[in-house]
Amino acid sequence: MWWLMFFSALSSATLLPGSSEVLIVSLAVREPEMAPALLVSATLGNTIGGYITFFMGWGAVVLGRRYTAWLPSEKEQARAMPWLKRYGWWSLLLSWTPVIGDALCLLAGAAKLPIIQSGLAMLVGKALRYAVLLYVAGFLGG
User: Fold this and answer.
1) Is the pTM of this model over 0.70?
2) What are phi and psi of 29, to 5 degrees?
3) Average pLDDT score over residue span 40-65
4) Pairwise CA distance, residues 12 & 14, whole Å
């Protein structure tokens, strides 16, 4: 079951559609004792997906927009850019958010922000999101 959560979270963090939030709560309802393992697998999968988008941004600078038209739109990137300029890699704590999350990861890669700090910020932000979801749903924290 954890592998299903991992791949759902991974695809949710890339440009592919996904609904890892619904899946983590559904799987926790089915097997509550798996909540910690689901939290870990969702966090790791979603962080790796964020890194995939990060490195797509890194490579997009090299390839140019001609070959990367399928990346987040100029409008999405424009929404994310103020956060990135103001907070740098700290802005990746918001990489889990809808719409601007993918754009933040992409732009962070394109800006060649530090890889380790960027990954840690993504990991913390994504872990907190899943932990809060499981806590609110009653599966973590007693």
Assistant:
1) yes
2) -65, -40
3) 85
4) 6
